[in-house]
Inverse folding.
């Protein structure tokens, strides 16, 4: 009886691991994409600021 319960528990746990891994992977992908977009925006803002400062200094 205990052995059957243990097998069922392990099978259920294994099945629950798969969706958890999928959710974790998708979440990581989304946050990585958001981070990359944010860093790209910050870099562009920094470059635009540097260009603006150079134009101001030249004039």
């Amino acid at each position: 009886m205990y052995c059957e319960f243990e097998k069922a528990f392990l099978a259920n746990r294994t099945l629950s691991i798969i969706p958890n891994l999928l959710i974790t992977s998708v979440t990581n992908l989304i946050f990585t994409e958001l981070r990359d977009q944010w860093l790209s925006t910050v870099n562009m803002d920094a470059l635009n600021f540097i260009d603006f400062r150079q134009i101001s200094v030249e004039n």
Notes: Helices lie at 2-58.
